[in-house]
Amino acid sequence: MTRSPQSSEAGPAHLQSVRTWDATVSDYEALAEPQTRLFALAAIKAAGGLATGEYVLDVAAGTGAFSLAAATAGAKVLASDFSPAMVARLATRFAQAGFDRMGCEVRVLDGQALALPDGAFDTSASVFGVMLFPDHEAGLRELHRVVRPGGRVIVVVWEDEAGAGPSLLFQRAYCAAFPARPPPVFPPGIRALHDRGQLEQAMRHAGSDTVEITHIQRDWPLPSARWAADNADRLYRVFPQWAALDEGERVRLQAELLAAGGDTPDAPLPVLSRALVAVGRRKG
Prior knowledge:
- The radius of gyration is 19 Å and the shape is globular.
- The chain has helices at residues 10-15, 18-22, 25-46, 65-72, 84-97, 136-145, 166-177, 188-193, 196-206, 225-230, 232-236, 240-244, 247-259; strands at residues 55-59, 76-81, 105-108, 121-127, 147-158, 208-222, 269-282.
- It has a domain at 10-160 and 185-219 and 274-282: 3-Layer(aba) Sandwich (Rossmann fold).
- The chain is built from 13 helices and seven strands.
């Protein structure tokens, strides 16, 4: 569930706010992670799997979709995020699963300037994370810097500029509700990396010798269009566009969310969501 900034100036600042992400932990874990986990598992498969004892760094780990999957595969994971609340939640989940006793840990780190040594990891990864950074190019360079020569760098991004699942639904409803307004503008990292060719070029520029790109698409199932309309504040309260609406405008947008269900507003509503997985090998 990616956030929809209002403009290229104000929106990304909101999107990148630590406070914004701290406030979304429980909803993100409940509403987004069950779906992002499927993409994380597909990314691990696309990368050829993870070996027992492999030292893996997860940047912008969130509530742990990739980190938990990697640890389950036997990897020794350092999960990082700039949100202390996300880190605290993932630390609890590591402890509950016993992964902390396997050497897995969680730290608050800035993915654009990782306080970690060069070449310390076998694999680094960012699943729907680096694309949201203020400086995604710095994030990509850091992912490469911290892996050993020949090590893997796994980057997963949404293939649609509007993100996936609820974000796609929001964009469509917003444009339908307010056709005279400009459509949502997303962070430059999403716009720069959602194209296969541009993603490969960015990975090579950051330090990959070889890059393999895999396309993944899955339905993001929502309970119904009515559920989306009734839960709009829960889904979108961190979206700048939603926050800027008055009560009447919110009702208008909720009507468009309901209309997404057509003649069956109470039926399950799948939203086709597409992603690209880039697997690079750091130059020797």
